[in-house]
Amino acid sequence: MSDLVNISVGNAALTAVLGYAVVFFGIVLLCGVIALSGKILSSKKQPAAVSEPTARMAGRPAPGSAGELKLYDTDPRDAAMIMAIVADTLGKPLNELRFISIREVKEDEV
Amino acid sequence: MNILDTLRNLAMESGFAAFFVTDGGWKNLVMIIIAFVLLYLGIAKKFEPLLLCGIAFGCLLTNLSYFVGMGENALYHPELWTAFLDEASPYYHSYGHIMSNAGLLDFFYIGVKAGIYPSLIFLGVGAMTDFGPLIANPKSFLLGASAQLGVFFAFFGAVLLGFSGPEAASTGIIGGADGPTAIFLTTKLAPQLLGPIAIAAYSYMALIPLIQPPIMKLMTTEEMRKVEMVQSREVSKKEKILFPIIVATFVILLLPSTAPLIGCLMLGNLFRECGVTERLSDTAQNALMNIVTIFLSTSVGATMVAQNFLNLKTAGIILLGLIAFAISTVGGLLGGIIMYKTSGGKINPLIGSAGVSAVPMAARVSQDVGKKYNKSNYLLMHAMGPNVAGVIGSAIAAGFLLSVFGG
């Protein structure tokens, strides 16, 4: 224990390298597990998506929709800009806001 | 009753006299000025105001009420906590002794000492965090790991400066850019350094928009900074519910010492994502988070007792903290550059700097710097992946240091 309190420079270097390696080891394994679970879950989802008629897909979220945010007839760049403007106007950090969906309002809907 | 004697006694017992008659009373005056400066930074400059205002006021209250040899009216008693940690003392680990002699801020500090507040803050952080970008792109995890470089670099630097192992570990964790993690580890390993470490961690987190951009520009080419990334895939509800369960199970089994932080972080996230505990999620994000922030910040500020704070070690911690932040940014960017090369230029290395945790400030810096070089570049959601991975990475780093030095 006193070796660790009055740690030598050599031991400190070893601990630092080992610590960084442990962080990487843990994270790499975690990354693998999350990637694997994502693949398993998305492979289960795929057949149903393929069988849906194209016509019904029109009103669905864009394939690129990330996280919970659904984009309807909205370009991702426009969506990012809208979110940034809303956050700026409200004076709130973006991660404290929850955007559910962004939909383009057509002229005939106004 | 002699009125003159009474007035004289009142004057001698006042804090004004204590500045001049007690041993090192002038140091309290310096700490009060430091508290004013921190209040100014929190209120006028908006440096992490939710934390810094409480820390500064806790520091002010302690140094107004505690003078060496005049502790009877103090709100915080450092000697109680010294006895609490001294194995030779009859009051070693005696909460009873603390409770029967405590001032108000001693009571608050029990929550820090027991590791309750940082864990509850993590519960709120988990409830506030959308891990979707990380689940959509699990490779982001690697950037969260590579950005822990500063933790171990600063740890080594602190040992070179003559810090003990536990003190060096607590100083190094500033590089994780995660306040609750730094407070949690320091309370366990080197509680006497809690004040300067918390101040360094939160101040540098607030200064990330100033610290990171020059390093980002130095380490990347203009071509790299202009890279536009394709939007991430959609993440299903099921994946989001499974994520906290998988991470908690896996990380706690790997490093049991991370259980309080990772456990609470993932519990909060499960409340958010499972869809049946909205009330709990809302409480964790708002009411609980705010209440705990008040207790945590004031009690951390209370530890900034003049006699413990004004020394060369504090200067060393402030310096090493800055180095830790800078090296962590370098580590994250190096990870980003490697991913840029291996992906054939599809990943913008600027998102690597967001791996230093400090959610969401670091991700916003990646977005701002990227946009400066390519107006149509939107890196924010891509940077949120490494950013939240950094929270997990710094908790793992803290868990490792705790298991080595917490013996």
Cα end-to-end separation of chain B = 58 Å
How much helicity do the residues of chain B have? Answer: over 70%
In total, the number of strands of chain A is 2
* Measured distance between first and last alpha carbons of chain A: 73 Å
> What does the overall shape of chain A look like?
elongated
Largest interface: A-B, 46 and 64 residues
Give a written overview of the molecule:
The complex is a heterodimer of chains A (110) and B (407). Chain A is mainly alpha-helical. Chain A has two domains: 1-51; 57-110, no CATH class. Chain A is 60% helix and 5% strand. Chain A has helices spanning 2-5, 9-51, 54-57, 76-90, and strands spanning 70-72, 101-103. Chain A is elongated and about 75 Å long. In chain A, 21% of the residues are buried. The model of chain A has no long low-confidence stretch (mean pLDDT 77). In chain B, α13 runs parallel beside α24 (380-405), α15 (208-219) crosses α22 and α18 (259-273) packs across α19. Chain B has one domain (116-405). Chain B contains 24 helices and no strands. The interface between A and B is large, with 46 and 64 residues.
Main attributes of the structure:
heterodimer, A: 110 residues, mainly alpha, two-stranded parallel sheet, 4 helices, 2 strands, 5% strand, elongated, B: 0% strand
List the helices and strands and how they pair.
The complex is a heterodimer of chains A (110) and B (407).
Chain A: H1 2-5, H2 9-51, H3 54-57, E1 70-72, H4 76-90, E2 101-103
Chain B: H1 3-13, H2 15-21, H3 25-43, H4 49-65, H5 78-85, H6 95-101, H7 104-113, H8 116-128, H9 132-136, H10 140-146, H11 149-160, H12 165-172, H13 179-189, H14 194-206, H15 208-219, H16 222-225, H17 237-254, H18 259-273, H19 278-285, H20 287-302, H21 306-309, H22 312-342, H23 361-373, H24 380-405
Helix pairs in contact in B: 2-3, 3-4, 4-20, 7-20, 8-13, 8-18, 8-19, 8-20, 10-22, 10-24, 11-12, 11-22, 12-13, 12-24, 13-14, 13-24, 14-22, 15-22, 15-23, 17-18, 18-19, 19-20, 23-24
